[in-house]
Amino acid sequence: MSGTSFRSIVALSGGVGGARFADGLAKVAGSALTVVVNTGDDFVHWGLTVSPDVDTVMYTLGGLSDDERGWGLRGETFETLERVRAFGGPAWFMLGDRDLATHLTRTDALARGETLTQITARLVKSVGIAPTILPMSDGPCRTMIHTAEDGVLSFQEWFVGRRAAPRVRRVEFVGNPPATHQVLDALRSADLVVIGPSNPFVSIDPILSRPGVSDALVGRRVIAVSPIVGGRAVKGPLAEMIPSLVGDAPSAAAVANYYGELLAGFVVEHGDEAAISGLRVHATDTIMKTRADRERLAAEVLSFAESLR
Amino acid sequence: MSGTSFRSIVALSGGVGGARFADGLAKVAGSALTVVVNTGDDFVHWGLTVSPDVDTVMYTLGGLSDDERGWGLRGETFETLERVRAFGGPAWFMLGDRDLATHLTRTDALARGETLTQITARLVKSVGIAPTILPMSDGPCRTMIHTAEDGVLSFQEWFVGRRAAPRVRRVEFVGNPPATHQVLDALRSADLVVIGPSNPFVSIDPILSRPGVSDALVGRRVIAVSPIVGGRAVKGPLAEMIPSLVGDAPSAAAVANYYGELLAGFVVEHGDEAAISGLRVHATDTIMKTRADRERLAAEVLSFAESLR
């Protein structure tokens, strides 16, 4: 059933960019794919546990996401939010009515003693998704943004609440829970690990820094897709973070340097390959405008990975 | 501002019938009215604390209720419910999207240490309601229905989940929290207490049996509006419960007998007064089809109460 010779592929993903790429991989690799998702952005809102990246991956692979708006569910409504606003409650995070069902089901399941991994598997199954989707950890690891202007903010306070405007001085992960055994098993048995076009500092680093992950990656073939195209981030605040956090101008090369020896190969936009040395590079169209783009890019990435065997 | 000479009126209420009558009282008495509401039907659903009678009173007095459907909010949608159903979650209780904002706000506030009384006051204020609405207690008192066919069920499991079909052998209140001091203060300072046309066994008894309420009612003028009209309940399962629980045929007189010496006066439907003795009775049109009916009935009830001075 799989359009690749890899038997077991693990993709590491944050939100939208990583999710769209994972959707392409899912079309090519089906159930041979496991997506390990950042949970550093998870937070509690209206008393509910919200896992934005896990849900973005689930909605995207389930064909439920609103591709035009770029977040959330297609056909979403906001009746609950408007009433919460009328009650004077917090309305800065756009939780839609359909989306709420996910957070209610998850929060209730966690309160009954299920793990985030278990409830995610249950939700993913009911959506009818072939790949496995794994939160990076079942314990709390919270990405905190140390800003130049506004002190320390949780990721969502910074990213959504302040529209990523305060300059980032440092990223901190509060809480150091291990990767789940499901994540470690998937990594150990993977014949390919692909880091999606997600933000290295706030989407991929939380995964890579989970205890157990570095060891599980020893001997794995790891490649990455650049989230920087022509010096700009395809989505999100990455371009501004690179100079602040690693002292380089924003570029695909800076991302390659940041991942360093972890990578066996790197996929970049046409034109970005010239600045990269000491690493096998594949240059192509990496911007995924359509669903067909996702699958085409995924197939190319897998062919490139096969050429590295 | 008040269309009555009573300075302080307390109404005891369950759900729809009591709420509609309280709405009429609110139109006549404004902020001189305090509604004390049954919380024996409260339950936890999707991890949220739901207070159906408190919400029905709040929505009704706030002009937000769906009078045609007879429950919930006007213009309500059910997007969250449909997704919860798709996830295989419980969908037997119709929580609407707008309604959810109430339960989310309440549950979050309770988790932060607010009392049910405090969060109710906050919600009521934001809806712009002049009367005070008080849950009977801040502690859990759960109405359990001992049935002939299905064992012991929580009120909502019996009433909504089984459509009140299993025959009622006994009503039990599990948990015996006291009335709040706000309820007791309101009762002690009331110059009139009106029991609305609610179910005596499952809506009013939970209030009357809270520790402190009996003492606070000593010396108060208490009148009631019959929930039984011509031998039938205006709404709900009361008519079937009367024979089973007190051995009488369903009638306004049976309700009067049940309340006994608590009552100084009783308001019944035209024609139901003949069977009642030993009690001052006012007969009128008690069925509230329109909002004007509510106000007319409330004004009549208050005039009748004044005649008992």
Question: Overview of this structure, please?
Answer:
Chain A is α/β, with parallel strands linked by helices and 309 residues long. Chain A has one domain (9-307): CofD-like domains (Rossmann fold). Chain A is built from twelve helices and 14 strands. Chain A has helices spanning 16-29, 52-61, 79-86, 97-111, 116-127, 155-161, 181-189, 200-208, 213-217, 238-246, 252-259, 291-307; strands at residues 9-13, 33-37, 43-45, 48-50, 132-135, 142-147, 152-154, 168-174, 192-195, 222-225, 228-229, 232-233, 265-269, 280-284. In chain A, the strands form four sheets. A seven-stranded parallel beta sheet of chain A has the order 5-2-1-9-10-13-14, with helices on both faces. In chain A, strands 7-6-8 form a three-stranded antiparallel beta sheet. In chain A, strand 1 (9-13), helix 1 and strand 2 (33-37) form a beta-alpha-beta unit. In chain A, helix 1 packs parallel to helix 2, helix 1 (16-29) packs across helix 12 (291-307) and helix 4 (97-111) crosses helix 5. The longest helix of chain A has 17 residues, at 291-307. Chain A is globular, with a radius of gyration of 18 Å. In chain A, 49% of the residues are buried. The mean pLDDT of chain A is 95. At the A-B interface, helix 3, helix 4 and helix 5 of A face helix 3, helix 4 and helix 5 of B.
